[in-house]
Amino acid sequence: xxxxxxxxxxYLKSCEARVVSVDEAGARLDRTVFYPEGGGQPGDTGVLRxxxxxxxxxxxxxxxxxxxxxxxxxxxxxxxxxxxxxxxVVLDWDRRHRHMRMHTCLHLLCSLVAGSVTGGALGEVKGxxxxxxxxxxxxxxxxxxxxxxxxxxxxxxxxxxxTDDELAANPGLVRTMSVKPPTxxxxxxxxxxxxxxxxxxxxxxxxxTGEIGQVAVGKIENKGRQNRRINIAFV
Length: 235
Prior knowledge:
The protein is of the alpha+beta class.
């Protein structure tokens, strides 16, 4: 199995790795700092640097359809590395860091809105969550102020793990209706924002909320009888 270094340290920007397989889905490595698309967060991009100095552009990272491990999607037409090659995996850090900031901000948004999450997505500048909010009005100005207050309070953010049984005994930890946390391996990864939020999440996040920066709530849309879409963006 690929050693997913980003699970414990989202700030790693590069690593050395060995190519274990190459197919139409991309290149799989024995270890990586690249996050594969999932949970509303886009897959990482960057380069694989070969021993001779050549760089292969990684245009996306996705879960391999057969194994679920990160698969590094190479730029069309580029020469693939050989199995056994040692490569330096170099992340497009600026892009990833914006995803980390936005993903953590969406957790803050989730902590401020009472409804269950029915969907979501994030990008480098904007993000959104959909909530099950029948007959509920959302005050955009107050929500913006509350988000920026939580950012300014600079709460610590950290991953932690619980067992499958502990999650089953605490179903209220799961806020997302559309995506259930993966179970079956014996443990589940949680994302804890100290004093603010705790829920299952496998994504990458900043270490403190102050790193997010100022944000604003944008359009609030009705997406069905009960669904409310709340859009946010960096200022």
